[in-house]
């Protein structure tokens, strides 16, 4: 008879994740990071990286945690049956990987968290590692040439809130296919459509921001920037063409409630352009961007009261696929 994992309810998982995030945020005072500058400069670099990672975790990840938790609960049985070597693509700071995913997998499963950011990997190794069942590495899932020692090495792959950042989504899934062993499975969840991303391309048309947002279209989710009306159908077609057996593929209409400050924090945490904007323009840019995001997809807009909230809507894509046992 199937026994559920030790953490088997949404409230328990959420409580565990929150408690451990707080504990590690308090304990994190340094990070393993190579730098050739002076000790003072090194400390400044370390502090900056830690601050950026924790700003991401605090301001930009509440929605991601909620949605990831929903998927983890929905696929809890499938996750509990996963064993062997599992790749978590886009593991970021490592909190979801260790506190949410690892407890849900089978006891014989081990996870390798993979992220394109060296800073994120360093942070995860410092704060969310497990010497027995969890390690981290740098990996670009869009690479044109996967490391030879990684091909066909994984029994399972997971990815939550990562693949919408891929410019070439097809290549990302092709690489997932290559990384899996025959009969290996992958569970992915990512944004299919979010009006807030169109704010980037609209601001690109504003003369004073144009030079800083020339590649803004690359940060719009794959199917959204291709104006696909049936994003689920488009994803199914892509996955089948690559060679996957599709066990599940769906679109989920979602919404999230923000205060004015939490919305600004969220936008700041995930904004890829802010570092390019000159300091004397950042305040106007942020305010302009927040206005555009709300204008594009708010179900309930802000009023004049500073305590008002806004509800933003978006669509998630969830795919659970398998690499056939016999592959050509």
From TrEMBL:
For this protein, the record's InterPro entries field holds: Methyltransf_12, SAM-dependent_MTases_sf
What are the residue boundaries of the Methyltransferase type domain, all occurrences included?
Answer: 87-185
Q: Which range is the signal sequence, renumbered to this chain?
A: none
Under SUPFAM superfamilies, the record lists: S-adenosyl-L-methionine-dependent methyltransferases (SSF53335)
Q: Which Pfam families match?
A: Methyltransf_12
- Coiled-coil stretches noted in the UniProt entry, renumbered to this chain: none
Q: What is this protein called?
A: Methyltransferase type 12 domain-containing protein
